[in-house]
Amino acid sequence: MRNRGFFAALFDLSFSEFVTTKLIKILYVLLLIMIAIGFLIIVFGGIVSLFTRGEFLQGLVTIVLAPIGAFLWIILARMWMELIIVVFRIAENTTELVHLKKSQ
User: Residue 37 and residue 98: Cα distance in Å, rounded?
Assistant: First the structure.
């Protein structure tokens, strides 16, 4: 496989290049940003319920559990990204093995 640029791989109609392996870092960063935004919204909601609604215990539990939930989501996001990369690397390595076998 030739290692071509992103746009060349994107418009490769023979699908001999994988775009996913080039995009995975960006997708992971986007997932981390989304998890961080969700974390901040949940913590803000916990703070609001802690002080304004009179639901002190619910707000406290929300604030305490939000980092644990965000951490678990980060772990799951990383595992999914690694799984995707492993599958694509297996495909790339298998293609290389086939080309090597044909050249013998």
Answer: 45
pLDDT digits (tens, 9 = 90+) for 60-73: 999 999 999 999 99
- List Cα–Cα distances, 79 to 8, 19, 91, in angstroms: 28, 19, 19
Contact 24, 83 (CB under 8 A): no
Domain coordinates of the chain in residue numbers? 22-99
pTM for this entry: 0.77
Burial of 59 (0-12, 13-18, 19+ CB in 10 A): buried
Residue 8 is which amino acid?
A
Give 57's Cβ-side CA count (13 Å radius).
0
Question: How far apart (Å, rounded) are the C-alpha atoms in residues 24 and 84?
Answer: 8
